[in-house]
Fold these 2 entries.
Entry 1:
Amino acid sequence: MVRVKLPSGEWIECSGAGRILDCLPKGVGLVAKVGGQLVDLTSPLPEEGEVEILDFDSKEGRQVYWHTTSHVMAQAVKELYPEAKLGVGPPIEEGFYYDFDVGDKAFTPEDLKKIEERMKDIIKRDLEIKRIVMSREEAIRFFRERNEPYKVELLEEMEEETVSIYQQGDFADLCRGPHLPSTGYVKHFKLLSTSSAYWRGVETNPVMQRIYGISFPQEELLKRHLEMLEEAKRRDHRVLGAKLDLYSIHEESGAGLVLWHPKGAILRKIIADFVIEEYMRRGYQLVSTPHIARGLLWEISGHMGYYKENMYVFEKDGETYVVKPMNCPFHILIYKTKTRSYRDLPIRYAELGTVYRYERSGTLHGLLRVRGFTQDDGHIFCTPEQLEDEILGVIDLTLYILRTMGFHEYKVVLSTRDPEHPEKYMGTDEEWRRAQEALAKALEKRGIPYEEAPGEAVFYGPKIDIKLVDAIGRTWQCTTIQIDFNLPRRFNVTYVGPDGKEHYVIMIHRALLGSLERFIGVLIEHYAGDFPLWLAPVQVRVMPISDKQLDYARKVYQELKDAGFRVELDDRSYTISYKVREAEEEKIPYMAIVGRREEETGTVSVRRRRVGDLSQMPLKDFIEKLKAEIASRK
RNA sequence: GCCUCGGUAGCCUAGCCGGGUUAGGGCGCCUCCUUGGUAAGGAGGAGGUCCCGGGUUCAAAUCCCGGCCGAGGCUCCA
């Protein structure tokens, strides 16, 4: 007797020698979980114990669904282009892809249509998907016969002695599985894009053609997903950035170098002022350091060795200089101007430091990936005992800032060292143990769920990365909190302990917004350009109904300006409808409309963007209303 | 850097496949009329190296080759 938990939460009981699938109500479930292990619904029912059935509402269910769709796509491609060689085809965060070696060919949109048609046909055939277990040797022979060299290469590098192959009709793929019971399980799908990718992501390897797609069990879900992709396009910060007149990037001045226009510059200043003020409140001291430094500094820091490719280096009078790619060495030099006692620690330096890093041209992307950017950088020098409290402080500060900026959901990753290869890392075992523990404990104390990523730490220390989730569910990496065992040694950064001896400080690098450029890019997409009042580059536009009210409009404008608001006057001789339409499109939060009636009563008619007319009110009341809304930062 | 796709006025875009009058439209800009009460008032006008170079042709925005630039990916990362 086996207890089976259905996706609905309901339990049923099964027994017998059949497949798991046979005891389920028709159409229920995509994959099963037995003893923590995902298995095919077509696998035999265990004799006893519990089986959990998963459907598309679970992450695992979706992954299996997408994985099978990728096999269906691969089968369609093989049927249409028999010469295509299979690469790999996994499910991803949102959908799936499959890589093919098709020689010089590239898939066109018309090819995708053809492939989609063939996929529909394969789904209609409702081919049974069979799991076949064989020895690795057998599998190598199998794929060699089928002329699939990439599969053979994968197999030759595997350590397992037996492997599984999934077969549907004439199509077979090396695959761990599990998969859906038959191709008919795939319902609604769409091939989204093509690109090239190197075999196994290595530049010297052959180029393969990748096709991305997505699938859903209900048409409605597919429709919604495609709408979400449209929505993401609508929010593109590069389009909005131009439309809202925030910034531009020019061929003449260089790719990846941002020119902030008045409206973008003010947005940048509002954000910068906000974070600096908050830093000062929390015990940071502001420092400021130059844009260039002698090469010597970067020799000491080690960047000349392992980071040289990314640095802008130049010569003057036979001396090498470097445009700074980081701020930390400067902050260290400031720290080192005095002998520091443990009583002086922690010392927290902050700087909005503009750094320059050479990035390959293909990687540049609007504001999200640039070559010159301003980090909201900070370095904390502390003792090992202080580490946990400092991390707590940084986490609290980060969450406060991100929440204020309108982000309420996060994904947190704790990157730790690879326990198998401690020799790849700087610092002692004790330091690593202590640091990793401090990071984990701080997260736990705040009840923040996180994912641990062993082996993902950089060589100089463990780190916490915070990815924020935006209004339409996409994640963006901004915040990083890193512990550094390397630079204190290279620069001999120490403090005198209670024992009268010198000890290396613990150094924490932290950038909370990451960079102003990237953060503003994310912010534009998050709000779709429709910023809350406290961030809006223009908060109010005063609009006279006709030229007869120009004098009164100027007076209103001046009073609002004197009250400290970011205000504009639309003194053009256009109709009010036209001015309203334009202000709405420019996403200006408030319109102060003044006509004869307002002039006579000393009032303004207030219109809130996207809401409409809020009716006439005394100018004083409007000012109070604005002040309250700005103070709420909502 | 590599692969794919693209490049027509400040911006968006038709024309390109099947070469053939002065390259068409919209926004914006300028001038004039209009002074209008909450998402486009009307008329007129200016504005183009059709990315650049070469080739094919009687004829090239259109076809071919090379280059430059951009976008989407790969890779990397804040």
Entry 2:
Amino acid sequence: MPTGGATILHADLDAFYASVEQLLNPALRGRPVAVGGGPTGGVVLAASYEAKRFGVSGGMPGWRAARLCPELLFVRGHFAEYQQLGDAVMAIFGDVTPLVERISIDEAFLDVSGATHLFGPAAAIGRDIRARVRAEVGLPISVGAARTKHLAKIASQVAKPDGLVVVEPGTEREFLDPLPVSLVWGVGPVTQARLADLGVRTIGDLAQTPSRAVERLLGHAVGSKLSAMARDDDARRIVTARHAGSVGAQSALGRRAPDPETIRSVLAHLAERVARRLRDKGRAGRTVTVRVRFAGLRSVTRSRTLAQPVATTLTLTEIAERLTQAALADQPSGTEITLLAISVSNLAEQRVLQLELDLEPDDPWRPGSPTGAARRAVDGSLDTIRHRFGNDAAGYLPALMGDLRSVPDAFRELAEHDL
DNA sequence: TCTGGGGTCCTAGGACCC
DNA sequence: TCTGGGGTCCTAGGACCC
């Protein structure tokens, strides 16, 4: 268990994408701004605080946001700038302590227990970080400080916007108890509703409910974790580097009939993205999962675990096609699809020339011709061209997918970036 | 007129092995 | 002779987070 003072910080940039837009364009400052989407479609990726006051939030369809806030200004994202400014903020954290756990482009945990003798207590460090980010990067950031990661994260949420909240050891209960359970990490709308059925609305309510009752309601893992968190009995350490456990890509399609040509071309595009990223990481995976979403947001997954890991574009495409056919086979004819996704998990380190040596000859999932060696050679050539001339320079399906790119590719690249 | 794209973790049932 | 129990892996689905 952590001991001593409040030595864990959670620092979280406020309305990050929207704040960057306001930084880049002074005309947007003080006004309701939505990044992404539009009055006629698409989704809002981020909303400024001025827009949030109207109920606009990230993930919301553009037409709904426009209805909630008629003066809302929709802007296109500046994705390269988001990455660059996020990195600049992380560099400031790195000046304080090497123990930084970046958990997304715009937030991180810091363990400052070794820094307090240099920079003073957590409250002073939090103030300094906020001042430096404001002065050197130009962005508002909120900071929470506490004994544990989870509590620090709740504190930063309470601090928003543009604030600092320090939970001194010994004051945890009075801080936590009145807060809504939805602030607990892992409590989303479904869990919140289930807890409300038990009469649990605040973290204090949750802490006083027997673990057994919570576990019966939510399952063992979620229940016991939640109970522990509510009692502030949480000892997760800072993790400075982490390997991704899966690599995936998806594409929303609107509503369309699942005809073979559409499926083939979308899957080929997705497989190429996934396989390329796996190869760039020097990894490959044995489990391939396909997700098909239907009108009405219902979705189905089909997966297959292979004897050997794959990272080859054509092989992944073929396996994904079979899985998609399997998923569609169970659906009534005439069912329309709205999204296709491919994910590869069960990842292992792979040296380039060792991939896919041999699948079982009688394995029905064994890819057809050309051989694995030929496929790897093609992928290797394309990778070389891409690395030299950029991602759009080469591929199996040049320029075919233009109409399906509803989301800017820059946003995809941001989302897939290794933090 | 139902909403993007990237992930993580958990559960439950079944197969299979010892 | 068809009964026990535990462990591991696989598959499908779901909740959640940024």
